[in-house]
């Protein structure tokens, strides 16, 4: 894990890099927060790792998948961790209950790319097999399943304080009602594959990102969830696939901001309503595929070639 202490400027300048012990051996596909000090990541080494990013030390490594980990997620206010994998399963772990999974969710036929949890102890999973599934966490029972043709799911997230689930797929962005497990809204199709999505803390906005090359299609798009199909703005500037997009915590008196990471080895910060505020290039890091805010001042970024990066804004 490399800790980068730098500021976002129109021309990024790297002031200091501190190298810590590796979190993974191989590429890192996903990262999320567990607590103010701890993050959870998953990678091509099939491991799920809990890491103290402030101290630069590994706390726990969970081994249970037999193919690479695609997504990790933490249940808010708990020590529960969920991991999705190319082995078609989702495993549930507890940081306080040893190194074996405490629950397993099986039923998909292809790689699981999307996982989301609700405060009501429900788990949503989405896969390239076109199925969206809703599970009871405690029993691991699948309560609802729905298949939509060509819905090769790439990411899933729950809309805060609601019954809605948003998912992106290779050619769709869809909103589901978790009570009926029916589609309530389908966004206008984009030309390029949708790679990721996130919902603002107030539940009003959705940001989605897409693949592309040569600057074509490599954008993130802001949508107004209160007005179905309403596109607010597009964020253009990456030169290759925009792999991840996330809303940043809003500090007192500040404006809403969004962070994006790309296969072009850069992270960009955007004002939600206007333009790019700055770019940080991590040359040689390879595709930057996952972001998670740690607080209002920093981000964790997962890379293919350079481990986890701690970026101070």
TrEMBL record:
PANTHER family tied to this protein: SPERMATID WD-REPEAT PROTEIN, WD REPEAT-CONTAINING PROTEIN 31
Per-repeat ranges for WD: 62-103, 105-145
Protein name: WD repeat domain 31
UniProtKB keywords: Repeat, WD repeat
Top-rank taxon: Eukaryota
């Amino acid at each position: 894990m490399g800790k980068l202490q730098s500021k976002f400027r129109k021309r990024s300048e790297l002031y200091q890099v501190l190298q810590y012990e590796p979190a993974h051996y191989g590429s890192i596909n996903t990262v999320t927060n567990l607590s103010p000090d701890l993050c959870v990541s998953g990678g091509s080494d099939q491991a799920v790792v809990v890491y103290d990013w402030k101290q630069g030390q590994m706390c726990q490594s969970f081994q249970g998948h037999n193919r690479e980990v695609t997504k990790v997620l933490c249940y808010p206010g708990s020590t529960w961790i969920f991991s999705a994998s190319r082995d078609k399963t989702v495993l549930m772990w507890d940081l306080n209950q040893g190194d074996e999974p405490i629950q397993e969710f099986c039923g998909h036929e292809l790689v699981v790319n999307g996982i989301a949890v609700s405060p009501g102890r429900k788990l949503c999973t989405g896969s390239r097999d076109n199925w969206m599934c809703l599970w009871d966490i405690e029993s691991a029972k699948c309560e609802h399943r729905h298949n939509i043709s060509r819905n090769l799911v790439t990411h899933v997230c729950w809309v805060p304080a609601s019954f809605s689930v948003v998912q992106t797929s290779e050619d769709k962005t869809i909103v589901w009602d978790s009570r009926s497990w029916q589609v309530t809204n389908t966004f206008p199709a984009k030309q390029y594959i949708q790679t990721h999505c996130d919902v603002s803390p107030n539940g009003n906005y959705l940001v989605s990102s897409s693949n592309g090359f040569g600057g074509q299609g490599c954008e993130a798009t802001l949508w107004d969830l209160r007005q179905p199909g309403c596109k607010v703005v597009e964020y253009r500037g990456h030169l290759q696939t925009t792999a991840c997009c996330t809303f940043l915590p809003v500090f007192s008196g500040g404006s809403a901001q969004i962070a994006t990471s790309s296969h072009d080895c850069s992270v960009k910060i955007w004002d939600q309503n206007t333009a790019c505020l700055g770019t940080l290039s991590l040359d040689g890091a390879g595709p930057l595929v996952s972001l998670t805010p740690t607080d209002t001042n920093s981000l964790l970024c997962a890379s293919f070639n350079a481990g986890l990066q701690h970026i101070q804004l």
